[in-house]
TrEMBL record:
This is Ribokinase. GO terms for molecular function: ATP binding; metal ion binding; ribokinase activity. InterPro entries: PfkB_dom, Ribo/fructo_kinase, Ribokinase, Ribokinase-like. The lineage of its organism: Bacteria, Bacillati, Bacillota, Bacilli, Lactobacillales. PANTHER family: RIBOKINASE, SUGAR KINASE. Pfam families: PfkB (PF00294). Gene3D superfamilies: 3.40.1190.20. GO terms for cellular component: cytoplasm. Residues 1-296 form the Carbohydrate kinase PfkB domain. It catalyses: D-ribose + ATP = D-ribose 5-phosphate + ADP + H(+). One of its GO terms (biological process) is D-ribose catabolic process.
Length: 307
């Protein structure tokens, strides 16, 4: 069984369901309002757990009922919450999502307790990070915390996966030095590289720029067009499975959790792992909500057999 540690965010997601996104200055009506657990880190941890990996989550929640709700949800999906801590006097992170009828979304985040995660928290989980197979992190917690964790993991010979979301224009060189795989979507990649993605050639240019920044293995998720893989041995666009999207929230997180849990230690099956991750995402987008939409390994396996 693969062993994965996810360092990152947990949020309560409030989703406003609308016909279409409002234009600047426009007031519109929501057709429905729903609430669910989310956060990129928590979503990725749950995806890894549902794919069959033994998964730990390192995170901070607030001193409120929502923190308890987050922890309960993680446990219910099989994620170990030993390193999920409560921060006194701080609220749990919250995401406000607008979801249109086409299944597309935009998101505003109030980080809350997520930004209270510290390097000392990483040191406290040091034995775990040094002994597990793979470490995943995003940018919804402090970058210096991720850098400390990746440095520790790489010194122990473990795989590190960075999901640079929300994107920043300049990722610290030290963090990239300890990153094995970077997994931006097309918008995030363009912000990092300064190269807009319009076609396969611009995908290749983005991947090359990310390699020049110091990361050997690049995966650019490209929505309903698929995922672009660029390593020393592979340069290919893996097409997305054609489905009717209901809600794309958490699709990228599902991809990352499944990719991590299916990768060989030497990354020799990168393309096959990405295909499995893509299939998992195609199932997730057909369902509402981030965490509830993530399929089980059995569902993904059955879907691939039915092709």
């Amino acid at each position: 069984m693969k062993k994965i540690v996810v360092i990152g965010s947990s949020n309560v997601d409030t989703t406003l369901h609308v016909k279409d996104f409002p234009k600047p200055g426009e007031t519109i009506n929501a057709t429905e309002i729903t609430t669910a657990a989310g956060g990129k880190g928590a979503n990725q941890a749950i995806a890894a757990a549902k794919s069959g990996a033994e998964t730990y989550f390192i995170n901070r929640v607030g001193e409120d009922s929502e923190g308890g709700y987050i922890t309960h949800q993680l446990k219910s999906y099989g994620v170990d919450t030993t390193y999920v801590q409560t921060t006194m006097g701080v609220k749990t992170g919250h995401a406000y999502i607008t979801l249109n009828e086409a299944g597309q979304n935009n998101i505003v985040i109030d980080h809350g307790a997520n930004y209270e995660l510290t390097v000392e928290d990483i040191k406290a989980a040091g034995d775990l990070i040094k002994s597990w197979d793979c470490i995943i992190a995003q940018f919804e917690t402090p970058i210096e915390v991720t850098t400390a964790a990746f440095k520790m993991a790489k010194k122990a010979g473990k795989i590190t996966i960075l999901n640079p979301a929300p994107a920043v224009e300049e990722i610290p060189e030290e963090l990239l030095k300890y990153t094995d795989i970077i997994t931006p979507n097309e918008t995030e990649s363009a912000k990092i590289t300064g190269i807009q993605i319009k076609d396969k050639s611009s995908l290749a240019a983005n991947a090359e720029k990310l390699h020049l920044l110091g990361v050997k293995n690049v995966v650019i998720t490209y929505g309903d067009k698929g995922s672009y893989i660029s390593t020393k041995d592979i340069e290919t666009l893996i097409p997305a499975y054609k489905v009717e999207a209901t809600d794309t929230t958490g699709a990228g997180d599902t991809f990352i959790g499944y990719l991590a849990s299916n990768l060989n230690e030497d990354l020799s099956n990168f393309e096959d792992a990405a295909k499995i991750a893509s299939r998992a995402s195609s199932i997730a987008v057909q369902r509402l909500g981030a965490q509830p939409s993530i399929p089980t390994a059995q569902e993904v396996e059955q879907a691939m057999e039915d092709e």
